[in-house]
Structure formats: structure tokens, C-alpha cells
Specification:
- This protein is of the alpha/beta class.
- The protein folds into four domains: 2-99, Rieske [2Fe-2S] iron-sulphur domain (Rieske Iron-sulfur Protein, 3-layer Sandwich), CATH 2.102.10.10; 123-229 and 360-428, FAD/NAD(P)-binding domain; 243-356, 3-Layer(bba) Sandwich (FAD/NAD(P)-binding domain), CATH 3.50.50; 447-523, Enolase-like, domain 1 (2-Layer Sandwich), CATH 3.30.390.30.
- 18% of the residues lie in helices and 32% in strands.
- The chain is built from ten helices and 37 strands.
- The strands form ten sheets. Strands 13-12-11-17-30 form a five-stranded parallel sheet. A five-stranded parallel sheet has the order 19-26-20-21-22, covered by helices on one side. Strands 33-34-37-36-35 form a five-stranded antiparallel sheet, with helices on both faces.
- A hairpin with a 2-residue loop joins strand 2 (17-21) and strand 3 (24-31).
- Helix 1 packs parallel to helix 8 (414-428).
- The radius of gyration is 24 Å and the shape is globular.
- The two termini are 27 Å apart.
- The model has no long low-confidence stretch (mean pLDDT 96).
Length: 527
């Protein structure tokens, strides 16, 4: 159905506009003398694309920063795995016309290469089957690789949306059917093999993977995407039944099953995972106490004002905090019954969730130096330094950050794993692309979505716009006058910050001090 949606001058150059065309909600973008039209909802959880930013031919969703080419709708950056279908849009006599078929799809799968192992005998092996692995496998096929792709993982599940393990899945507000990133049929169609196995050793020099039981696999190219291992509670009784880590889909299911006979839960750690778990369990009506050594939740990351607002938000929803405290012992006879803190406080508990961080899962790696934090050094293309034909991505990779003048960082965010997986997979298939992605993380705290863009390194200055206590704010973090991160609840401002960081145009700290409410999207310029 072709519709006249208005005069071209009514469409601001650089700002997506939502328009209804028949029964369809469409986002229309003006790119100079051109116009383009796409579905108004991002394929990843239906974020409103008209509230995002348009910059240098990139259309960025405000919710989770999935990024699309503004001329074609092609997928540029995750967390979406889908591209945008493009609708017919054209100019005639100064008016914009958009034609949306009645059966128009809301998303499309990027073009993939059909496997052809007869003509492409090489085998690419990915150790790990999480976000980085899934993104890498698809990137290989999208980049033209037709050989064998093998994912080796410990979980008897397809790659899935891990962040929901502490969010909606734990809260009981979503169906488990939403968890897989792709269907079994998809992996079968594109020849992406999944192998359930435990890896005993990765011989980097030989690109050899030794499975539990002795089977050996040799790869033409190898990707290490083994993720992280939850840190265990270093207290007597920390291994009692009823004490859970929360990392995997299976962990979440086990916790939900245990909740059937639980009323009181102690969450150890005021981390992102710990706070999300607390919010999810309060949604289920459980009594929740959070115990952590910090004086305020996430105070070292966000600062006192934001940390205080998070504590107030949780307390308003019924969470009890025991801050400045560590766990001395977990008590129970055959099963957890209570948590005793270092000051003698006894917290009755039917269930304990431990969220005190993860360590890179590199204990099986041989033949290359593993850093003191357990990570592997990689170069700009995510190739493991000192290894031929081996890449690493996700939690295990210590990489040179393009936006910190090459300073090495290791980031455990799920979206970064997806970003790195795409770049590593493309590189293994022959691309020369370097990893220059801007890190982005989001956390759901009750009705509040908190985003974090950039690098969570120690900061000297905090520049605040808005009021954290009211849930409407952006905080900027700077060191040496240079802003390297932003956090807050203003989605479009954070998306614009990410684009400015990508382009190397973040305002200096002094400018933001002088005008903290600066509209960053206005600094992006044209589309």
C-alpha cells in the first residue's frame, strides 16, 4: 500500500521518524536527498527505532544499541541477529511516498553461504557455544565460508539469550521458548554443527582440541570462546545444597525449581547479576536480603549518587541490604539454612544466590601465555598473540581498545561477546576488519533500565545530568579530562554517546561540566 507520508522537508535529516502506513508502523529516515523506510520496531525485543539515533549511515536502536545500515537495513552490530527489511520509499514532487506490502516481514536473516565441504575442505572449530560462538559461526557463513563449522559446548541447549537468566526468565515474566538465539532448524540449514562435549585441553600451537574421553579434533582455524566461570563463595558451607551460582539457563531453572519450597533468599554480592536476581525474586514475592562488602551497590562503578539511588530503588521494592559485610559461614545440615556475616549477623535462608563475578574459562588452554587474570592476549583482529590460526572472543579476550589509544581491556558484557564474535568469525573467513566496537551493557532493575556505555575503568570525575533518585539521569565518567564512559536511563543520550565515542568525538570533561545536559544527539550532525 503506497502512502504519501508528507513533504520531504518535514523529515529532519538525521532523525528517524515513526509513521503509520496502513496497518504497519514504519520508521522513515532521510539521508540527504534520499529516503529509506523500515519496520519501526527493532527485531531485538522491539525497541522503538524512531527514538534511536542516525549517524554516518548507521541507525542505532536506543534500547540495546543494535545497529543497522540506514540505506539497506543490513545488520551492522548486535545484539540483534536479524537485519531490517527495506520498504519501497521514494520522492516525487517534494513528497515522500512509502509502499509497505500487506505481508511485509518485520525482520530478515542476513545473506548466508550454503555449506559446500566438497569444494571447501577446511574445518573451523569454536570451543564454546555462547554469545561469541553463535555470532562467530553466523559471521563465517555471512562472510562466505562454506567449510565445516563445529561448535563445542558443555550445555545441551542451543546458544541462548544469557542476560535473561537473571532478568525475565528468573522473574517468570517470559516463556523459555524465547531463550534460543536461533532454532535447531536454522543451524541444520546452514551447516553449523553443535557438539555436546567437555573439553579437557586446547593445544593452541597445534590447533588441537582434546575432548573428555580422549577424542582429538584438529582445526584449520580455531576460536576460543569459552566464556567465564562463576567465582565460588570462599566461605565454609559455600558448597551446601541450596547455594547457587547464576550463570546458565540450567542454573536459572534449578533456582526456579528450588523456589517452590523457598521463602527467604540471600543474594551474596551487589553486582549487576546480584541486583537483577534480587529484583526478579522480589517480583516472585520472595523475601530477599542482599549482602555485600560495598558501602553502596555498584558504588565503584557508578559513584555514590547512582549507587544510593539503586539502593533506594531496591529498598522501595522490599529488598533488605546488609552492606559493608562479608559472609563468614553458610550454615545448614545437609542443606543451607542461614548465612552468618562477619559481624555475627545471622540471615535465615532457604536459598542462597552467589553473584561475585566470573573468571575467564581458560584453565584448559595450553601452549600460549595465560595472563594473571586468566585472559588471553589478542590483537586488533582478536587473533591470539603468539598463535597461528587461533582467535579468542568474549570474556577470555584481553584486547587493545581502539577508543583508549590501544590500552588493553577485558570486558565481560554479553553484547561485547556478540560484537567480538562477529569480528572474529569474519576474520577467520578472511576479513581484515579490526575490532573497534564500543562496549555497551544494560541492566533491568524493576521498571528502570540502566545502560552503561564505554569502559568501566577507575575514574576521577563524575559529571551528572538529571537526578538518579528520580530515575532520569546520565552520568559521565572521566579521567585526566577525558570522558571514557556514560551510564544512565536516557536511552537516546547513551546511543548518541556510543556513536560519538566510535567517531572519536566525545566532548571533553570541561565541556560537559559546563553543560551537563548537552543533547549529544545534536552533536552527531547529519545522517
Amino acid at each position: 500500500m503506497e502512502t504519501n507520508v508528507g513533504r520531504v522537508e518535514e523529515l529532519p535529516d538525521g532523525r528517524p521518524q515513526r509513521i503509520r502506513v496502513g496497518d504497519h508502523e514504519v520508521v522513515v529516515v532521510r539521508l540527504g536527498d534520499e529516503v529509506r523506510a523500515f519496520p519501526a520496531a527493532c527485531p531485538h525485543y522491539h525497541g522503538p527505532l524512531d527514538e534511536g539515533v542516525l549517524h554516518e549511515g548507521r541507525l542505532v536502536c536506543p534500547w540495546h544499541q543494535a545497529t543497522y545500515a540506514a540505506r539497506s537495513g543490513d545488520l551492522l552490530e548486535p545484539p540483534s541477529f536479524f537485519a531490517l527489511p527495506s520498504y519501497d520509499a521514494h520522492l516525487a514532487e517534494g513528497h515522500v511516498y512509502v509502499d509497505v506490502p500487506d505481508d511485509a516481514p518485520a525482520q530478515r536473516t542476513p545473506p548466508m553461504t550454503v555449506p559446500d565441504t566438497e569444494h571447501e575442505p577446511r574445518e573451523f572449530v569454536i570451543v564454546g557455544a555462547g554469545a561469541a560462538a553463535a555470532a562467530a559461526a553466523e559471521a563465517m557463513r555471512q562472510a562466505g565460508f562454506a567449510g565445516r563449522i563445529l561448535l563445542i559446548g558443555r550445555e545441551d541447549r542451543p546458544p541462548y539469550d544469557r542476560p535473561n537468566c537473571s532478568k525475565d526468565l528468573l522473574a517468570g515474566t517470559m516463556s523459555a521458548s524465547w531463550m534460543p538465539l536461533r532454532s535447531d532448524k536454522f543451524y541444520a540449514k546452514w551447516g553449523i554443527e553443535r557438539r555436546l562435549a567437555v573439553v579437557d585441553e586446547i593445544d593452541v600451537a597445534a590447533r588441537r582440541v582434546i575432548l573428555h574421553g580422549g577424542e582429538e579434533l584438529t582445526a584449520d582455524r580455531l576460536l576460543i570462546a569459552t566464556g567465564g566461570v562463576p567465582r565460588q563463595l570462599p566461605a565454609p558451607g559455600g558448597d551446601l545444597p541450596g547455594v547457587f551460582a547464576l550463570r546458565t539457563w540450567g542454573d536459572c531453572e534449578a533456582i526456579v525449581e528450588a523456589l517452590a519450597t523457598a521463602r527467604r533468599v540471600v543474594v551474596v554480592g551487589a553486582s549487576f547479576i546480584g541486583l537483577e536476581a534480587a529484583a526478579s525474586l522480589r517480583h516472585r514475592g520472595l523475601e530477599v536480603t542482599v549482602a555485600a562488602p560495598e558501602t553502596l551497590p555498584l558504588v565503584q562503578v557508578f559513584g555514590e549518587e547512582v549507587g544510593r539511588s539503586l539502593r533506594t530503588l531496591h529498598e522501595r521494592n522490599g529488598v533488605i541490604f546488609q552492606l559493608g559485610r562479608t559472609v563468614a559461614v553458610v550454615e545448614g545440615s545437609g542443606r543451607v539454612a542461614a548465612v552468618q556475616l562477619d559481624d555475627g549477623t545471622l540471615l535465615p535462608a532457604d536459598l542462597v544466590i552467589v553473584g561475585i563475578g566470573v573468571a575467564p574459562a581458560t584453565g584448559v588452554v595450553r601452549g600460549v601465555a595465560v595472563q594473571s587474570d586468566g585472559s588471553l592476549l589478542v590483537d586488533e583482529q582478536l587473533r591470539v598473540v603468539g598463535a597461528d590460526g587461533v582467535w579468542a572472543a568474549g570474556d577470555v579476550a584481553s584486547y587493545p581498545a581502539a577508543h583508549l589509544d590501544g590500552e588493553r581491556v577485558r570486558i565481560e558484557h554479553w553484547r561485547v561477546a556478540l560484537q567480538q564474535g562477529r569480528v572474529a568469525g569474519s576474520a577467520m573467513a578472511g576479513s581484515a576488519e579490526a575490532f573497534t566496537g564500543v562496549p555497551f551493557f544494560w541492566a533491568q532493575q524493576y521498571e528502570r533500565r540502566l545502560g552503561f556505555v564505554g569502559y568501566g575503568r577507575p575514574w576521577e570525575e563524575l559529571i551528572l545530568a538529571g537526578e538518579p533518585a528520580g530515575g532520569d539521569f546520565v552520568a559521565y565518567y572521566a579521567t585526566g579530562g577525558r570522558v571514557h564512559a556514560a551510564a544512565g536511563t536516557r536511552d537516546r543520550q547513551l546511543a548518541a554517546f556510543a556513536e560519538l565515542m566510535r567517531a572519536g568525538r566525545i566532548p571533553p570533561a570541561d565541556d560537559l561540566h559546563a553543560a551537563p545536559d548537552t543533547d549529544l544527539a545534536g552533536l552527531l550532525g547529519g545522517a
